[in-house]
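Appendix B, example 12.
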Amino acid sequence: MELIEVDQLDNSQIRMSFPEVRRSGKVVFNCRNVSAGYDKGPVFSGANLVVERGEKVAFAGRNGEGKTTMLKLLTGQKTVMSGVLETGHNVLLGYYAQNQDELLDNNLTVYQTLDEIAVGDIRTRLRDILASFLFRGEDVDKKAGVLSGGERSRLALAKLMLQPYNVLALDEPTNHMDIPSREVMKEALKQYTGTLVVVSHDRTFLDGLVDKIYEFRDGKVKEHLGGIREFMERRKLETLRDLEKNNPAKEEIKKEGSGKDSSAGEIYRQKKERDKILRKLQQNILHWENKIEQHEKGIALMDEKMLTTPPGGFGAAFYQLYEKEKKELDQAMKAWECAHSELEIFTETIKND
């Protein structure tokens, strides 16, 4: 049985399909009344989740609600605080982390990256496999350290695919990916016969790929049957980033006792200063949320255009603009996360004063 099949696409890209995988048990993951989190307490509690063989499942929800935490539970990187998590029989799991590309050895070439882990007859087909991930000709001799973000992500996924996993857990796999990379990954995953669990904010990537959504919201986990479009229609969302706005940060400043030597005026001054800082931090979050919304609407419009390719295809300027929007969206998301972290640190400091 061949590991990789490659077919030439009309647009000169390569379509890659996964190898046949050994069957796992019918139930791959079963969570019953699970709570999980960190030292400060659970991120979610009472979670019930079932993933069956062959299902393609997405985790959706605002940042900080526990999507990646749940993925780490399923992959054995974390343990539950309470409840029961069972992994099914004969599960062979491959994990793709958000920083998966950072785990590459920058001193190895693209070819060497796969050659060092390949075994058996597959070593004779490494160039075909690399072509499946759009590495052709002299590309295979490039050092991993000089690759772009999208190229590094593709190479990291190629490493993952040398193992015949029957379950894949992917955490934001399309971050830093360009359009061709994203299309290749999506098409490959659609053909994948194993079980897929993915965390992603990329609506276009999830559309037509997943058939069940677990939403992480307000410390709970809720199952939604159907694809990402049905989920967004049910929740009245234009983009998945709109989930962030449905739960804006609402932090309460608790005034502690003043002590014998503190005056009412000093307490008032301190509270006023804290309120000022708090407003500034909240405004910064709102600023980046607006930026994210602008970029996501721009990308959504371009995604709609790409559903119908005009005669002769889209020009280079179109794709350059698309990549620019994706890059700026990624930067805005990172800035939003930093702003949110600053707010959380500030409010935690106030509570501990």
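The chain has ten helices and eleven strands. The longest strand covers residues 27-38.
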